Amino acid sequence: MTVAAIHQPQYLPYLGFFHKLAQADLFIVMDNVEFLRRGLQHRNKVKTSQGDQWLTVPVLHQQNQRILDVKINPDTAWNRKHWGTLTTNYSPAPYFDRYATDLQYLLQQDWHNLCALNMALIKWVMRQLEIHTPMVRLSELPVQGHKSELLISTCKAVGADTYLSGPGGRGYMDLALFDAAGVEVLWQEFTPPRYAQVFPEVGFVPNLSILDVLFCCGPDTRWFLEAPAGRSRPLTLGVA
Q: Distance between CA atoms of 89 and 225, rounded to whole angstroms?
């Protein structure tokens, strides 16, 4: 059994994104679909003393633009603001210092392309969590179709016989098409864990950026990603 997961590249995604990535044999980066304005491709939430707050990367967006073509607006010091927000709110966290130097260096690079930024940060998180799932870009595969047809075509292109879907897929996937194509569907089972966060007085806030878990839990974050027994071994494929 070869399990593929497919997802758009997000900005500092939440823990569930990496949970799915860790359970797959191959991760396909859905980089050539339409960019969603005010979606998670260019923003995510962190915790402050007032509750959650968006960190948003300003982009130069055009209608019907693909994610891989989206440019970052160079006229704002967004990375400096993001780092300032992270430092202000997470410097008391037990593992902030463990990750701060590398993360600050990454964020302060002269980024022009949103997808490149997202992929650099995703790969950095993967290294911290010791996730070795290989990645392939959808834009580099000979695929076609929309929705279920596209997912099936992608699985076939990479030699996967099983597709790992998030629960949201139940709302739009045509399971009969998957069955006819010989592609099994597995559903991700992920429950946001509770852990000690900064600013406990405002209550626990689930599904924040992965940075919240890393800063608060450090290497123990890896325990939240444990795959079920019997998983097939990682593949040796091209890395995005």
A: 25
